């Protein structure tokens, strides 16, 4: 390290120095060798849960076309947005282009709440 670098407070290869291109390339890949671009490209399935209910087997066997199943949610309640069965957010159903349904995210569930809920 040169004296000018010491005087400027810079350290070559210092990942905290935003002007250091070597540091930027180090930060783009995890220090354990995991390529973040590969991780970010992993497909996930996101589900929006409208509600749930519990039935006895005899009631399930009686379900036919036109049967209405009462759910545990009320009109206007927020829907659970889930990834791998864990609630990550809550939102409301909206209509988007071409009369398709979407979900507007209104609350993000904190990581600690996700762990407690699992």
Count of runs of 4 or more consecutive helical residues: 5
Mean pLDDT score: 79
The CATH architecture of the largest domain is: Roll
Rg over CA atoms, rounded to whole Å, is: 25 Å
Low-confidence stretches: 1-24
Between the first and last Cα atoms, what is the distance in angstroms?
A: 50 Å
CATH class type of the largest domain: Mainly Beta
Oligomer: single chain
Provide the helix percentage.
Answer: 25-40%
Features:
single chain, about 120 residues, alpha+beta, Surface presentation of antigens (SPOA), 2 domains, 4-stranded antiparallel beta sheet, 5 helices
Q: What would you say this structure looks like, in words?
A:
With 118 residues, the protein is an alpha+beta fold. It has two domains: 1-42, no CATH class; 45-118, Surface presentation of antigens (SPOA), CATH 2.30.330. Helices cover 26% and strands 25% of the residues. Strands 1-2-3-4 form a four-stranded antiparallel sheet. The protein is extended and about 55 Å long. The relative contact order is 0.10. Residues 1-24 have low confidence and may be disordered.
């Amino acid at each position: 390290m040169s004296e000018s670098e010491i005087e400027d407070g810079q350290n070559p290869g210092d990942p905290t120095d935003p002007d250091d291109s070597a540091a930027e390339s180090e930060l783009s890949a995890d220090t354990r060798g995991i390529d973040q671009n590969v991780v970010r490209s992993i497909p996930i399935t996101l589900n929006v849960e409208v509600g749930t209910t519990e039935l006895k087997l005899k009631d399930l066997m009686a379900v036919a076309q036109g049967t209405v199943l009462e759910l545990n949610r009320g009109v206007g309640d927020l829907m659970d947005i889930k990834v791998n069965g864990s609630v990550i957010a809550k939102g409301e159903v909206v209509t988007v282009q071409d009369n398709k349904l979407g979900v507007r995210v209104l609350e993000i569930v904190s990581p600690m709440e996700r762990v407690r809920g699992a």
